[in-house]
Write a structure and sequence with these properties.
Strand order of the largest sheet: 1-7-8-5-6
Number of strands: 11
Number of helices: 6
C-alpha cells in the first residue's frame, strides 16, 4: 500500500492540474470503490473549484469552493494519471514521459475528473484494479472531526511532531515499537516499509516494547523517521508493485532500501544477514546485530 512519501508524490503531481481549477465534468463508471461513493457525488463536484490540495497521513484532501472537501485514498493499487488537453486538437498527452511504467488498463478507470483552470484543461483518470481505494465528500468545517481523521496522530514532517511529543505518545505502551509506529494515532502516514527503514537507521530492534525506549533512543528514532521520509519524498516515493506517480513516473527510493525486502542479504553496516519476522501479519526486516 502506498505510504506517506508515495501519496505526497501523487499530491504534488495532481496539484498543477487541480488547484485553482473547476470540475467541469465528472464521469463515474461504477457506483462504488472500496465503499459506495457519496450520494450526489457528481453533482456535488461539478462546478466546484479546488482551493487547495493537501495530504493528511495517507489521504489527499481537496478543499472545494462549495464548502465540501474531497478525500481520496489510493488503497493498494489506485493511481491517478493526468492528461493535458490540447486546446487546438482536443487530444490528450502525458505531462511527462513514462519511465519503465506500463500503462494502466483502461477497464479499471473508475472515475474521471475533467478540470478547467488558468493553467489549462486536464483529464484526470483514477485507475484501481483491486478497488481498495476510496473517495469521500465531507464538509470542510468537519474535516478534523470526521471518521477518517478524528483519531489520527501528528504529521511526521510537521511542527507538532517533536521528539518530546513522540516520547509522550510511546510512554506506557507495551506493544512492540514496530506495531506502535504503524498505529496511525501515534504518528500519521507511516507504513511497513518506512517503519522498517527508520528502525534500522535508529538501531532499534522491532520487537522492543515501545514504552521502554529511553529518551535518547526515542530522539534518534524521531530524527530517523523524518530523515527517511524526507529522502523518500525527494526521490519521488517508492514504486513497489502497482504504484506510480500521477505523471506516470516511478519513484526511485526503493533502490536505496537498506533492510526492507532484503531478507538474507548482507547488512550495509555489519555484513550480517538481514532477517525477516512476521509481526501482526506484516513482514519485518531488520539486522539482529545493528538493532537492539
Amino acid at each position: 500500500m502506498p505510504e506517506l512519501p508515495e501519496v505526497e508524490t501523487v499530491r504534488r503531481g495532481l496539484a498543477p492540474a487541480m488547484v485553482g481549477a473547476v470540475f467541469s465534468k465528472v464521469d463515474l463508471r461504477r457506483p462504488d470503490l472500496r465503499f459506495p461513493l457519496p450520494e450526489r457525488f457528481v453533482q456535488r463536484l461539478k462546478g466546484a473549484a479546488v482551493e487547495s490540495l493537501a495530504r493528511r497521513g495517507k489521504y489527499m484532501v481537496a478543499v472545494l469552493s462549495s464548502g465540501d472537501a474531497l478525500i481520496m485514498h489510493l488503497g493498494m493499487t489506485g493511481r491517478f494519471t493526468v492528461c493535458a488537453l490540447d486546446a487546438a486538437t482536443n487530444e490528450t498527452h502525458r505531462p511527462t514521459e513514462f519511465f519503465q511504467a506500463s500503462s494502466p488498463n483502461p477497464l479499471h478507470d473508475h472515475v474521471t475528473f475533467w478540470m478547467d483552470g488558468a493553467a489549462g484543461r486536464y483529464r484526470i483518470d483514477y485507475n484501481d484494479p483491486r478497488r481498495f481505494g476510496f473517495m469521500d465528500l465531507v464538509a470542510t468545517a468537519d474535516l478534523e472531526r470526521c471518521a477518517h481523521f478524528i483519531d489520527m496522530g501528528p504529521e511526521p514532517m510537521g511542527a507538532d511532531f517533536t521528539a518530546a511529543s513522540f516520547r509522550r505518545a510511546l510512554a506506557g505502551r507495551t506493544a512492540p515499537i514496530k506495531a506502535a509506529l504503524l498505529d496511525q494515532s501515534v504518528v500519521a502516514g507511516l507504513g511497513n516499509i518506512y517503519v522498517c527503514e527508520a528502525l534500522y537507521e535508529a538501531g532499534i530492534a522491532p520487537r522492543r516494547k515501545a514504552g521502554r525506549i529511553g529518551p535518547g533512543r526515542t530522539a534518534r528514532l524521531h530524527a530517523a523517521i523524518r530523515r527517511i521520509l524526507a529522502d523518500a519524498i525527494a526521490a519521488g516515493g517508492s514504486s513497489l508493485q502497482d504504484f506510480a506517480g500521477s505523471d506516470g513516473a516511478l519513484g526511485y527510493f526503493q533502490h536505496r532500501f537498506r533492510v526492507y525486502d532484503r531478507e538474507g542479504e548482507a547488512c550495509p553496516a555489519c555484513d550480517r544477514r538481514i532477517r525477516r519476522i512476521v509481526q501482526s501479519g506484516r513482514s519485518t526486516f531488520y539486522c539482529g546485530t545493528c538493532q537492539r
